[in-house]
């Protein structure tokens, strides 16, 4: 019964994330974690080896400086991390830019780790596009959780999902090793896991619409009030996530 329960949970996560992808994820592609923090730990543990490095690009013009990425990458580079929507920048990457990121990663022969814990929390001109859309270009481990979109930070339930329709990960048995690794990890509370399929499948759109409206309104209020404070400024009005960057004048 426990095995069936876990399979049902993984299947619900895979089906939920598949809605915005050009291919279907399987339950074997999804792993449940204790929040997105544990998903990050798994991603780092999966890639860890002596001398390895992972690139965390700084935004330039609120996009990834891909020239800098190519200049910094070397034979020990295993991956680069993309946080979208951005925190604390409040930016949302466009489809064309994400495509360039995927093509750059393919050229460098590295992974793209997509931290999408704020996924779909976009309220500007750019719609949220999951990095997994480009999983056929380069393998993409996607990290996410319930905490932000469903506003339940204390629940500590997240996921580590492999977007790899070309089965690049499966050839060297990476998925098999991941399963063994997850077998020794502690997971979220059982009652929370039991609630996830229903949460993912039955939350009404009005809840998400209300959340987006609140985020946009509070973003507008913050930026307007920051303008009235003489010693600080808001260099970029957020269009996603839940944070705003402030600069000292």
From TrEMBL:
Domain called Aminotransferase class I/classII large: residue spans: 59-234
A Pfam family hit: Aminotran_1_2
UniProt GO MF annotations: L-tyrosine-2-oxoglutarate transaminase activity; pyridoxal phosphate binding
InterPro entries: Aminotransferase_I/II_large, PyrdxlP-dep_Trfase, PyrdxlP-dep_Trfase_major, PyrdxlP-dep_Trfase_small
GO biological process: L-tyrosine catabolic process
Gene3D superfamilies reported for this sequence: Aspartate Aminotransferase, domain 1, Type I PLP-dependent aspartate aminotransferase-like (Major domain)
Protein name listed in UniProt: Aminotransferase class I/classII large domain-containing protein
Species for this entry: Camellia sinensis
């Amino acid at each position: 019964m426990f095995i069936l329960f876990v399979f049902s949970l993984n299947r619900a996560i895979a089906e939920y994330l598949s809605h915005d992808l050009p291919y279907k994820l399987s339950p074997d592609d999804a792993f449940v974690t204790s929040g997105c923090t544990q998903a990050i730990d798994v991603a780092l543990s999966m890639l860890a080896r002596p001398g390895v490095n992972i690139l965390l690009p700084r935004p330039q013009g609120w996009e990834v400086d891909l020239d800098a990425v190519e200049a910094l990458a070397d034979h020990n580079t295993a991956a680069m991390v993309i946080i979208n929507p951005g925190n604390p920048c409040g930016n949302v990457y466009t489809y064309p830019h994400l495509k360039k990121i995927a093509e750059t990663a393919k050229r460098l022969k590295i992974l793209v780790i997509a931290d999408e814990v704020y996924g779909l929390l976009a309220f500007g001109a750019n719609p949220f596009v999951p990095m997994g859309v480009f999983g056929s270009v380069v393998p993409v481990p996607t990290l996410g959780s319930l905490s932000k979109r469903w506003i339940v930070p204390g629940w500590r339930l997240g996921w580590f999902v492999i977007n790899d329709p070309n089965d690049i990960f499966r050839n060297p048995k990476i998925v098999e090793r991941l399963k063994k690794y997850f077998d020794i990890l502690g997971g979220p509370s059982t009652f929370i896991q039991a609630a996830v399929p229903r949460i993912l499948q039955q939350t009404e759109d009005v809840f998400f619409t209300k959340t987006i409206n609140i985020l946009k309104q509070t973003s507008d209020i913050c930026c307007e009030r920051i303008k009235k404070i003489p010693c600080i400024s808001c260099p970029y009005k957020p269009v996603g996530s839940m944070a705003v960057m402030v600069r000292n004048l």
